[in-house]
Amino acid sequence: MMTFLKSKNAILLFFLIALIVIFAALSGGGTLRPSNIINILQSITIVSLLTIGAGTLMIAGEIDLSLGGIGTMSSFVAALLLKQGVPWFAALVAAVAVGAFIGLINGFLVNELGFQSFIATLATASITTGAGYIFTSGLAVTIEDPTFRFIGNKLLFGYIPFSVLIAIIALIVYAMLLNKTKFGRSVYLVGGNRVAARLGGLKPKKVLYGLFINAGALAALAGTLLASKLLVANTVGITSSQFAGLTAAILGGISFGGGTGGMGGAIIGIMVLSCFNNGMTMVNIPPYWQTVASGALLLAAITLDFVTTSRRNKSEVKA
Amino acid sequence: MNISRLKRAFGSNYLALIAVTAAVSLLFYILNHDFLALDNIKNIMNAMSFTGTITVGMALLLIAGEVDLASGAEACFGGIVCAIAIQAGLPWPLALVAALAFGACCGFINAFFVNVVHIMGFICTLGILGIYNGLVSVVTDNHPVPAYVPSFWKLGSATVFGIFPLPFVIMVVLMVAYGLVLTRTNFGRNIFMIGGNRRAARLCGINPSRIVTALYVNNGMLAALAGVILTARMHNASPMAASTGAIDAITAAVLGGISFLGGVGGMGGCFIGILLITVFSAGLTAIGLPSYWQIVAQGAILVFALSADFFNSKARRKRLERDEIKRRREFARNKEES
Prior knowledge:
The complex is a heterodimer of chains A (319) and B (338).
Chain A: H1 2-6, H2 8-26, H3 34-59, H4 67-83, H5 88-111, H6 117-136, E1 141-142, H7 146-153, E2 155-156, E3 160-161, H8 162-180, H9 182-192, H10 194-199, H11 204-230, E4 232-233, H12 239-251, H13 263-282, H14 287-318
Antiparallel strand pairs in A: 1-4, 2-3
Chain B: H1 3-31, H2 38-63, H3 71-87, H4 92-115, H5 121-140, E1 145-146, H6 150-157, E2 159-160, E3 164-165, H7 166-184, H8 186-196, H9 198-203, H10 208-234, E4 236-237, H11 245-255, H12 267-286, H13 291-337
Antiparallel strand pairs in B: 1-4, 2-3
């Protein structure tokens, strides 16, 4: 119990509770109304899928900046296929396959051509974003399919958005995958020390291919879910959520250097971010200041992380 | 001055890039003969200068293993500070100084987070980018800030020898100056050293945090300068002006052979990188491709150039290996004969 209280996740959890209390007080209880909680849950869905993809890659020491572009492009693929009368299941599978394929390209560029993932995914980001524009000449595509409308908007028992179930299942599955399986441990090893991982008999390239493809597929799923929630696939898409995904992962203690962090922290990070953004809207902070505050939150989180880590290191040295 | 030295001066990295740039220019010239008209070349030079000035500061940071994702926003903010100072009645040189001082402050804030709080430059400048973007909107309410002082406009529109726009000349002078600093001074060698191996650099008695601080402050000032020059050219400071500034600068620098991991690269490559990017996007406009395609094409050229660089360096490594084997064989044969 004491070790949990001293851990980073506990500090983040206290921070989350403080945030919820402060915003509830400022908004006169407005943030705690059921309709608003449903809003928060829906925004969590999209960010979670992106955070899982970006987070697992960051644990392996890589980064993917093309998730927003992949999500936008895939949502167009799904919407256009639905317009052609393709059944919803096939459209969803096609969108996810497109995302996985772009992920494969990212993996190829990083593994075989030795690009740094930052640059490689920057390039694929602009290619996928532009491709999304080209498909539709920059126009939004409406979604009429009833099943898609159901997936994006149906509330189970009147309160729980259906899409949240997808996010929760995904978070649990990936937490298990990272903690309990051989593949999960190899992700950490690849991120912590790639040379040692190779000498230990792992294939870092294979792991990275898997993670890039996985991140692309999840981003495609997130983009399609957002489109089904809004009932329209548009060019803005989930580009802005991409940085939300990175921020949530960093908030949750996944380091850019690779090798550390996990899904538990990431979940709290996602909740902090979503509650923070939602709370600001609820207490009527102007959108410009919200941008400022989001940046400040990221800096504050990292500074906090630094302070707690250095204090722990000091106490360890003393002991 | 023999051929091998000439070869080394241009480096095989640059050679591939120069070839690509020439091929791209030729292609656009065939598609549209106005592409190489004097006016359009002047346009290209003007367009280069903004990204170029930001890239100078960014390149130094990248070589030292740091990065500033907020430098586009800093440029934008610098231009706005300058325009506001001019509106407040300050003579424009003073407004320029104010903008530079502002840029230096921005750089100092970055350096504080990197050195004292030990956040990776990549992350802290990502947060700061959000803050500046928001603040710019707050300050300007998303409207351009006019700067109606004709003498100030000269900074953006004057030409040297009647051909070279002043912003372009400023960029080239900066590149040459910083290129000399990089290659000819102790400070420049130290930048490479802390980028290559920071720990070893510290053990050699170099103070990395002092150099990193200097580079961030320098980067902030150069970004602000770029913003001021852009403001002078446009006659107002737009809050949207520099949204992609940092990414463009990083792309140009990486195209020019500067590694994102630090420790390698130079100003010559940077220049060619910027030239290639600008020629390409200007060319796409010249042949009338829709702007969507330009986004795709920019990503494609980045992939293409980096792949070319990869195969090029692979071929060079092979050549070196072959030469080495040949040399050893000859050495063994000579030994046998004697």
